[in-house]
Amino acid sequence: MHPLLTRNRLGLYLLAWVPLTATSIYVLATRGALGWLQATVLAVSVFLFYALLCLSAWYPCRATPLGRVSFIRLLLTHLIAAMLISFVWTRVGGALSYAVLSPQQFDAIRRQFQPQLNSIFTIGILIYLLSVAFHYVLIAMEDSRHAEAQAVEARILARDAELKALKAQINPHFLFNSLNSISALTSIDPVRARDMCVLLGDFLRLTLGLGEKTSVRFSEELDLLQKYVAIEKVRFGNRLRILETIQEDSKACLLPPLLLQPLVENAVKHGIASLPEGGEIRVVVERQNGRLAIVVENSWDPETPPRRSGGRGLKNVQQRLEARYGKDASLRVNTEGELFQVSLSLPAESEEKA
What we know:
Layout: H1 7-15, H2 18-30, H3 36-54, H4 58-63, H5 71-100, H6 103-113, H7 117-168, H8 170-186, H9 190-211, E1 216-217, H10 218-236, E2 240-246, E3 254-255, H11 260-270, E4 279-288, E5 291-299, H12 312-325, E6 330-336, E7 339-347
Parallel strand pairs: 2-4
Antiparallel strand pairs: 1-3, 4-5, 5-7, 6-7
């Protein structure tokens, strides 16, 4: 479909013909001895027809794209089309003059402009060639917008693929750590190991369900966190203490699934597990000024050598935030003495907006 055949664009296109039409009205009224009304009707009719006729330049321009056909073909195509279109315009212009004017006025106009018919024909050719140039500019703009749209779509597909890849790393990571814990308990306390297997089954069912979604309510994340903590309490007992300060308004917020649990798991694995007396994990969540703030802080021993995993859970969370929100979300790590703190800030989305 022609890109100018819409109400707004067609109006702007016809507006560009106003100066040429106004000049013709002046010439007809002063040199052609016509009244201003007759001159206006005739000039508007002739140039409105030619403006619409020049829209046909879109099709030969599309058939002969710049840089893809030879210069000879380009020149011949548009020159032949210009001569044909100008010929039609001059003949239709004569017919419109005959229809609008009286016989005496028509004879006077014909005698006045007959010697200049070749010049008018040439002007018609030049106007059409200007229309060709305009349509090539229009095609370049359309192609640029199409390429930009394709680039945006490619970025979205790449982001979705990255999110899926990052999400796919989570479940094996959970399972690996949990199975290590069960393995350690099997020889020490088989009953606790069996309880942990049951809890792990429930946990994985919920994890797989949430992992299929692109966004979940924060309340669902809290349910998953409670199941995870129940598993780890089988292993650590009273050494693991959880303190939650959750603002009620934050529970309805949407966020990427499986975002909170890796933060608490990191606190357990790299903090509580290294302390013989155990420690406390504090989770603070609040919604304020259109943002959702999540803080997870835990006791830790700064002198404990880092594990080989290198904070994979935190890196995964950070990459998922960047892929989902770009620069609109952040993850900060702060270590002060025997307190390790991870702070997230992301847009407070709700189901109404989603």
